[in-house]
Design brief:
303 residues, alpha+beta, 3 domains, disordered C terminus
Length: 303
């Protein structure tokens, strides 16, 4: 298992562990070295040393930076004409009397596709911000019900159209969390949108929350197709669409879960998934309680 940010000393306690990280070498020509340490074992499986490898990844990091800057710039430039196009289309649709049914249908299709493009641009910009991180957050003390309810209300019509019922079980005595409300609504909207889209008509999506030793755990449970075990490891990566046939049916960019993970991590939380193929999936979001967040943030490794 490769783990970012671990100390080499952790190998002492876990002979099977492998640790890795980046090392910045400052000088006339600064370099970035990717290091990886793994235990060296003898024939009996006893650790007799540590093997340390170094690889110069300066060029790779520079290419990644240039790519992120290019994507961010292009996305910003796309927003202005898209906003203008959407405004013009809305003005045309407002004067419905001048349009026949066929023209109105074409106008609605154009607006829907313009909305999809805007969402895609917004997702790409969010990914760019998260990768450049840390992103600015407007943090405040909130109850879980605030952002879950907003997300559920925003998706209620979509769920009803698909014949899916969304049920929430949110106890009053949950500890408060310190979050950016808009960003956490974005996370829950993404998770609920996926749950609704991939659930069969007549099924139920449940959102539950419970207190943990140091915070709150939120579960988003669906009874859809589930995710194959081989796909779980890449589920939160960018542009990952695991079932092409399903994606064609319900749409999607493959960025939503990557954004969810990035935003939850920015809140010093964690997100994971448990899924059984053919039975459904449970996405689990853990957030620290507002009282323990300062200590958690202090321990958070710098980027």
């Amino acid at each position: 298992m490769n783990t970012e940010g671990q100390s080499l000393l952790e190998i002492i306690d876990d002979p099977s562990a492998e640790v890795a990280g980046d090392l910045e070498v400052r000088g006339r020509e600064p370099r970035i070295l990717r290091w990886q340490a793994s235990p060296t074992l003898d024939a009996l499986g006893t650790r007799v040393g540590i093997t340390l490898t170094l690889r110069d990844v300066t060029r790779e990091r520079e290419v990644d930076r240039m790519k992120s800057e290019f994507v961010s710039t292009v996305s910003h430039e796309l927003r202005t004409p898209l906003t203008s196009i959407k405004g013009s289309l809305h003005l045309l649709r407002a004067d419905a009397r001048a349009l026949d049914p066929g023209q109105r249908e074409l106008l609605d299709i154009s607006l829907n596709n313009a909305d999809r493009l805007v969402r895609l641009v917004d997702d790409i910009l969010d990914v760019s911000r998260i990768e450049a991180g840390p992103i600015p957050l407007s943090l405040g003390r909130r109850h879980v019900r605030e952002f879950v309810t907003q997300a559920v209300d925003g998706l209620r019509m979509v769920a009803e159209a698909r014949g899916v019922t969304v049920v929430t079980v949110l106890p009053d005595d949950l500890p408060d969390v310190r979050i950016d409300l808009d960003r956490m609504v974005q996370v829950m909207t993404n998770l609920l949108s996926n749950a609704v889209k991939f659930s069969p008509s007549g099924s139920q999506v449940r959102v539950t929350a419970a207190a943990t030793a140091d915070g709150v755990e939120i579960h988003v449970v669906d009874h859809g197709r589930g995710i194959a075990p081989a796909d779980l490891s890449r589920l939160f990566q960018k542009f990952q669409q695991l079932d092409r046939r399903t994606v064609r049916e319900v749409g999607g960019t493959g960025l939503g879960l990557a954004i969810c993970r990035g935003l939850v991590h920015e809140h010093d939380g964690d997100i994971r998934v448990h899924s059984v193929l053919g039975e459904g999936s449970t996405f689990i979001v853990r957030l620290p309680a507002a009282e323990v967040l300062p200590a958690v943030a202090a321990e958070r490794p710098s980027r």
